[in-house]
## 1
Amino acid sequence: MRCKEPTKSPWHLRRLPRALALGVGIALSGGSVLAQDSLIDEIIVTAQKREQTLEDVPLAVSAVTGDRVDDLLGGAKDIRALAARVPGLNIETSNGRTQPRFYLRGLGNIDFDVNANQPVAMVFDEVALENNVLRSVPLFDIERVEVLKGPQGSLFGRNTNAGAIKIDSVKPTTSERDGYVRLGYGSRDTINVEGAANVLGTDTFSTRVSLMYQERGDWIDNVFNGPGDDFGAFEERGWRVQFAWDPSDSFSGLLKLHGFTQDGSHPNVFYANAIGLGSAGLRPEFDEEIARHDNEVADLELDHVGAALNLQWTFANDMTLTSVTGYDTVENFQSADVDGGEISFDDNDVGVLGRQVGFNVATGDGLRDHSQLTQEFRLAGDADRLFYQVGLYYFDEDFDLINQDFILPGLTALVTQQTQSMAVFGQVEYTINDAMALTVGGRWTDDEKDLQVGPGVAGGTVTPDAISVSDDFFNWDVALTYDMNDDFTWYGRVATGSRGPVTLGRFGFVSSATTEDSLSGEIGFKSRLADGRVRWNSAVYAFRNDDHQLTATGGAANVNQLLNAEQVNGIGFETEIDWAVSDNLLISANLSYNDTEIDDPNLRDDLCGSAPTCTGLDPIAGTRDGPFGLVTEVFIDGNPLPRTPEWIANLSLQYNYPLQNGELYFWTDWNYRDESNLFLHRSVEFVQEARVLGGVRLGYATDSGMDFAVIGRNITDEVTVDGALNFLNLTAFVNDPAFWGVEFNYRF
């Protein structure tokens, strides 16, 4: 029999018990997780903006909860660590630890620009973080991370046609003492200090303070300026203060103030000609600890502050009105020696590791005067067999962005963008009988965006230009669940999503793309087997995107340009399992397959740049004159989407050995990612090779809440191409090498 779930706002959720608060298919990392009866506990999620068990949500959701989040991010890891835990998810960035780009089921955006639209939303404490710089927020004192797959247009709006990353922080409590301290030290002088605690508590009012500090030392030697470590350092600080007020059963409020800063020297290091012409992968002589940069301009400065206010009123018949207000502002300046090498005018240096022949490039982006305001109202309640929620949403964002070229004097551009969006949405769930339930949702959205480009603060040669785009669209979803019994549920879902019209202006090159529409269907099951010892969830899906938005980057013209593909199609499946083998042994595994294809016979992309050119594999469409010489265009019809491996697999094992006053524990987790193209076109060189990364944690946890551990990341020290630049030379950036460290945790 299906049960009606409470309609409380998600922030009412309290911290789940440590014992077996597992996310589906998520590799585990430290501390005791096996309950005495070896049962897999229920997971509570808010994927549909209300509290439900994972099994009752009619869509594919992966969740990481409680201490699992903390342990996953040990060793000063950032949000990219999730990519090695969730099936069908890839996360990458060309900006060090900032501006992460999410890919779900093959859908993402390779555009590194600050204002690039992504098809995967990031929602933090019910507030959507639109700008890529805002998404750089560090994760600490986190209650739960949910990965929602497939279009989420009905409840979460525009730019969610691939899915959403939903993050909830730990909230203040009035009834219990709760907090933690975490200290860590490891390779490359990495330091991690964080902690949180409930303070100033009464019967109706409570406060929680959360703090973090991370740093890493320089570890890459720039041999251009002589011996000594010059690159790779960062320093990151984050804070969060939350005030919860529950004066009565009919009203509650939560105010959150938060911020973070980050500084770094060369936060992302580019290596000139790291890839050999005519082959994939890094050159045999490549060393990630050695670079050759002749531009000392690379730097990172980021400063963010924000606030969120969640108010909730409960009326008769459990009807609930929720108001969520968010305001965020961020300033950011980031520069890099993007050619990754030392300039040379000797043709014998063409293709030589660390050498850049003929054209020296360093660029920077400065985000300033940024503000984002969001407001959502939701009314939810039950009526016999019917659960309903309806709402209004408003989004407003403004910013100024400075593009700078440090080599071509005066080539600076000021990009100003204003975005407004408003929506009306609703969803109902009707319980047909004791075994079946039907869910229907819809959302109408109106989207407007204005972009102006002109000379930067120093003037220059950029010709003023402007573009305005707008559209309105309707998204919907229909889902049916069928409970075969208390432990096995089938579901089917059809949903649509939209990515609103987008604009791009960089160094005066202005382009736009029309609205992208997605139609997706999936069938899956969720189950608890073997008397509660096994959780097994699976789904198969297919999608079609019309007017799919793509970004062509680089090429011999070195221009980022927005494109619309007539259609992109994809099919795939995901399966994930948690198995409590015994009282002391837990195994988690997941596997995903995803196949995407661009369907547009006339769509073109610029082939790789010059000095040297790459080895293209696509049919040549023609040539044209570009600012730096002849540009070769290729047809990309039939190509897969970039940065989308077909196969992703994760496996983790945890064993706990009880002692009189605690336990010893050991875990290991391994992630396999298949190869994928780096860009829209195909070439021999620009391939993200298949790789396997593994981690370990060995520790001792006491009954009093202390935890001592040795941790290892990428323990096989596998360094591969993480991304590349499609201009000038075969420049690449790579993943982090092996990390070893120690960690102390105390939870109270």
Note: The longest strand covers residues 363-383.
## 2
Amino acid sequence: MSDHKPRTARITPEEALSYHMEPRPGKFDVVPSTPMATQRDLSLAYSPGVAVPVQAIADRPETAYDYTTKGNLVAVISNGTAILGMGNLGALASKPVMEGKAVLFKRFADVNAIDIELDTEDPDEIVNAVRLMGPSFGGINLEDIKAPECFIIESRLKEMMDIPVFHDDQHGTAVICAAGLINALELSGKKIGDVKIVLNGAGAAGIACLELLKAMGARHENCIMCDTKGVIWQGRTEGMNQWKSAHAVVTEARTLDEAMKGADVFLGVSAKGAVTPEMVETMAENPVIFAMANPDPEITPEDAHAVRPDAIVATGRSDYPNQVNNVLGFPYLFRGALDIHARAINDEMKIACARALAELAREDVPDEVAIAYGRKLQFGRDYIIPTPFDPRLIHVIPPAVAKAGMDTGVARRPIIDMEAYRHALQARMDPTAAILQGIHARARSTQARMIFAEGDDPRVLRAAVAWQRGGMGSSIVVGREADVREKLEAAGLGDAVRELSIVSAATTRHLDAYHDFLYARLQRKGVDREDAHKEVNRDRHIFAALMLAHGHGDGLVTGATRKNAHVLAQIGQVFDVRPQDGAVGITAVLHKGRIVLIGDTLVHEWPEAEDLADIAVRGAHVARHLGLDPRVAFLSFSNFGYPVSERAEKMAEGTHVLDARRVDFEYEGEMTVDVALNMEQAAKYPFSRLTGPANVLVVPARHSASISVKLMQEMAGATVIGPILTGVAKPIQICSTSSTVSDILNMAAIAAGRLGQVR
């Protein structure tokens, strides 16, 4: 394992374009939520059945929330005039951003969102278009529209529409900024009504930040706003508009430098380098600096702390502590607003969101979150805002927002049982993303030297580059340097050659040690010294396994170019990977918010009862590594002895073996798949020891495991991770020949995180 600190992730243009193009162009699909298989289904979904909810809505418009997606559907709207700090690139160019916004809504708060790009810069046309499509949606999220048009559009739409209209560039930034400031002032021992605040950047975000802070108690006369022409003071006429004028103050200061003297708080939504260390030096004791310009802050935390060690610093970047990230706000604001069928998102709801975020940052941080960020997270100067992957956000923030909406009279349908609502929020989140995040987080914390055995495959090379540049650790590629260089150049990654460690039998200084090791291992299996040497020199799988065995890497991923049976056999020349050695393959299948582990999918061809028990133990071990409470089911075509079959009896015997071993997890069998996974079917067998749906499925043989996994993958579109090789002395993972770059990275992360390792 490497002692190096985690590397900063670096995304290449090729990776970005590939992500947006594969497996299909764009970032989301529309998937039906009701059955569409039979003529009856179609008759209910459309004609004649659809006439019934149509009439119900015509009679009572509020029932649209009951019979349509309106109550969980947000429109993400832009005209592309202010794209991510890139400027006015047009409506079409903004589509990748808006699609991204839509998937963030879904990923973090289970809100369905549709992106709509309007090809006009005329505020009247935008207002009219959005107003006319209002009946379709439960809320409107405006995005990347330049100032001052964004103010005009939002203000007019709020007046016209009876659903929430929210401009995230303004209010999303303001909410997260406010949350961080609450905690920063708490640590500084200051109150918001007393502090002097300087804001640099009088655009949409800056004005919204100042307005929200004033609504929370900041005094108008204590807040100085600056733009590119200096301080906005009462009487200034140059470069002014009505929104800036509202924040003009009586002051002698005319420049940012002058305004910063004695300031308690600096808020920056401007440009890189706008603040100098000299300015920071003149600030009050325990200054708070939110340098939120993207991609580079007004001043870096290093430069600020160099002159003021007492400063609390936040930025918009993920590679520094205290990231001001809008994803902490808008998904949960809309989640809470939609769930009460809100007419608007008002200041009280925004303030409730900010305060709930601030309070969450003061609580103990779950271990999985700390692992994700590679450091201990505890409320203090370097942790004043929760992290985006905190799983508590979904059930902490929306209830606070919903309550504020109910208290202020904008709710059409108040929530009666708030505790039940919190439980419902927890239940609606798909664990897939969280599980994958946990796997990658665990891997990132190890900073493993990962051996990629197949350096002649472009997918493997792209994965190796992504591993290195993604800050996961270092990449060791087995291959010829000239060949690797050629393939990387063809993939548009020619500059990555110097970043990778490229090793082969021809270049390693450890070749003699590898020869001796393999000969000693195989000499009593009819392999002479010359043949052992040839195996090391010629077979990359054996060579890579020998590197791992000698500690010249921390993990190994292979299998993208050869069938896994062949790869397993070659690795078996170096490591003990036979069934009798305790090796087992476990595959994770993730689908529609559920995860099941299936075994054995790699090693045992036809397991007997003892083998089945071993598979169950290994599966339970993997489940626990994934944060699951294992519930093991031994599967068959029969349930608890009926119908009688020799093959079914073998599965029942597996439970008897576990009885004797006195394992510490739930298990039961034999049983059919529906009884294992469907609690209504399981209720027919009240004596079953499973307290919930099984999440570890032990199948009769490797062929049935393979059929099950591939059927789910091809017919249901399930996400498949694995097979995860367990019970081996070193972390080795074997991909499939159909693996994508992402699949290879996932297997590398599993190896680095030692998922399922028991020795």
Note: Residues 478 and 503 are 5 Å apart (CA to CA).
## 3
Amino acid sequence: MRIYLIAPAPDDKTDTAAETSMAGVKTPFTLSAAAGIVSVAAWLPRGTDIRICDEVVQEVDLGAEVDPVGLSINVSQVARGLDLARAFRRRGGPVVLGGAHVSLATEIFRGQADCLVIGAFETAAPDFAADLLAGALKPEYRCGKADMAAMPLPRRDLYPNDRAIAGVVQTSRGCPFDGTFCDVIQYVGRKQRHRPPEKVLAEPDQLYRLGYREVSLSDDNFTVYRKRTHALPEALIGWNSSAGRDPVRFSTQISIDAARDADLLALCNRAGLRQVFVGLETSDPAALVEANKRQNLHVGLIGECRKLVAAGLTIRGGLIAGFYHDDLGCFERQFAFAQALPVDGFNVSAPVAPYATPLCAEMKRAGRSVDADTHRVSAAGARMTNMLPAQMTREELAEGRAWLKAALLAPDAALVRFEAYARTSGPPSQDMGRTAWVKPGARRHPLHELLPLMMKDKGKRRVILAVPEMVAERPETGYDLTSTLTLYLSDCARAANRAEAPLEAAQ
């Protein structure tokens, strides 16, 4: 039996939904290897011939001679996923759809495939595998909550590992926070469930053998439960750089309240946790109340970010513009806020009402919902929001957001933040300079392709030449500064692609 598992490309390849891909390089490259399809592959019957396709870095083989085709679809992949499902069904083979958006919006996928997997695949995997071998797949498999300790090692041996910078390890599911614009609790629940540290460590070990030296810990909020949060970094400390290994650089997602726990931050540094995504959203208290981002209220966000960076964490900040209270001046206010931070990289989004959330229902009742049934713009990275803003038009919001992203990437602005970051950044407890790009058969690091392209632009060249000067002053931060430069240049290349794409294409 031959099985083909596909992670479709994002529908809008020019915007936030596609920011896991590297822009500006000739060969397709991704910042983070696709985790879902390799995890599903680990549950499939032994002896089956399994192929993997991450469409961010590979072309889908529409002529593949396979039995079932499995597509894992999240909200940013709906249109492309359904296109692929139709193409494979026309060839007569069975098609299975699963993933986050199939679970949240099951009704739009019924009739589009031969089988739907609704919820976390693990609990239905044994029945699914038996039915697959018997040629008797059910129309739907409804799944329960998975035992995080029983998850097998993903089949990363099937993945094109030479096309990814970081491997991804899932450490928990669920989030206790109830962010207005977030659908995490609708999919995986409010109660956070954790994998035991010893189970987590098996995966970085596997990734290290495959040549990875950067690992993303997939966790909706790594620091929310302090007891568990201390236990995992302690385990990573014992693993990282032991047994003669080069140090591995970890990344994850945290909330700003982690800045209050100095002991935790010290543990993270010793563990090799160097990069974090933090949902800052905005400095406007009224908008934070609207977003139900209570952990960001009543604290000085700029000062808290400085604490995180001083502890050795590189922040990728999440910003949102276009809240109910926001007028057209919000974009300049967000720019001023960002420029005061020791943070170079940002994901800039507009508010959206994710499907199946209370906000989505509220927007429908208020007559402020757009494209709610087609799901075309319900991803946070879509250039056009699926809500009608109160103080501006959707077009003005899209234009203002585009201006903000461009303003943050402007060389003069970026240099201010690079310099603040370089001055503030705490040194790693391990020699990250020993970390090498060592994957068998791998190309050179994509930075080597980005540099010649960006050196042609006078402004970008100033940033590129300034970073080695910063590294010369503080050599211990060289790896972090170089990684930050790589992401900045990729963002610049993506912005150039975005400028060439008409706005109507993303509506």
Note: The longest strand covers residues 273-281.
## 4
Amino acid sequence: MKSKVFKVYEKITAKKLKELYLDFFSKKGHAIIGSAPLIPENDPSVLFTTAGMQPLVPFLLGSPHPAGKRLANVQKCLRTDDIESVGDTFHNTFFEMLGNWSLGDYFKKEAITWAFEFLTEVLKVDKEKINVTVFEGNENAPRDEEAIRIWTELGIPRKRIFLKPAEDNWWGPVGNFGPCGPDTEIFFDTGKEKCSEKCEPGCKCGKYFEIWNLVFMEYNKTEKGFEKLKQKNVDTGMGVERTTAILQGVGSVYDTELFQPLIKKISEGSKKDEIRHKRIIADHIRASTFILSEGVVPSNVEQGYVLRRLIRRSIRSCFVLECDPNILKELAEIVIKIYSQDYPELEKEKKFIIEKLDEEISKFKKVIEKGLRYFDKIVSKDIISGKDAFLLYQSYGFPIELTKEIAKERGLKVDEEEFKEEYEKHKEKSRTLSAGMFKGGLMNQSEETKKYHTATHLLHQALRIVLGDHVKQKGSNITSERLRFDFTHPRKLTKEEIEIIKKILDP
């Protein structure tokens, strides 16, 4: 049941929100550009597009964008750093991000003023509910007095402008050096009581929800320290799902029209009623459907590993709910129906999506059978150790709930504390190993590298012209000295095909 938790201001759908946003910034002179792929085309340092700025890195560094200096779009994104939090009210793996950019054009005054105008005049949000954070300053850069002044002039009282350290209100650089700068974040006050006297924007209690982040790239970090950038940029991001939930006055993103058809279908097929697991399935199948639509298949490496983890975690939740995992295929069709108008590739790849889901469900059933045989080997012990429980979880896909249930049937207990310790060790190890992979692509951006970035776009198009539309980029590695381009094709290219591609690239 949907729960109203705060006053509804302008109840609109996610679709309407996107239309209003793009129309607003179009009238402010922004060119509307399409969403980049979820799988980065020219950035081997990341597995997925995690923000709207990611595909724009070369242009943020000074290369001219063909559409101009003012841009706006709706970007499909995916992040897995908070995957364990999925199932609460607002966390998602896949999400859409509204963004507007200034590439050396307007700066703080316009960015903040237009954000305030869009929220209060277009979306009709009560300005009394708006709270903001700004950079408090440190040894590298001063307090952002300009942002404070602009917010004050717009009518936000000083008591609702909160100073925050660099860890909260400073973006970048990605890597050791490069563009960076302060940001100002806009929070919505839900009206919920403060959890303590220290409760303010950034608190996790649920009183304040961040809806928009405005980043001002005005510094460049070098070996000598911080210096002012010649080209100052604005990079903003607003989450579609969160903002829609806030505007509709519901307690969760899962109570919006983006998720309710999925939640309803899951409920119909489940014997148990555990909302967290319903949300996990709804979120993960949505993300999996989008990843599959770009040609990724479940595997044990890179994007394929993330996809496999999402699908199998969904299946685990199906076990908890006593729901047939084959429901995932029906849920994928619902996702396609919801989003295919904005992303036609979903409908185009529907057969592939369903087939790969079916294959992964079948494979996981085999893994479970192997896990049961392993379980039979350890039942001679009085207690299932945490290490054994974690092995069942990690190697055979057994959720701890399933291990506990089987153990109880056989009169055994599970050392849950040791399991948690093993799990935390694994999580920390995984976080350390993957930290480098999820850094953005602002490193190694020499002039030669920028040229190679452009070359990958041209090469990809030439390959599709000669070989067919089935060709998809699977990765690339770009340095200042050479370019490597990975793509899908069932056979080796002929000499004739290579010559035709060369002529297209260098007529």
Note: Residues 436-443 have pLDDT under 50 and may be disordered.
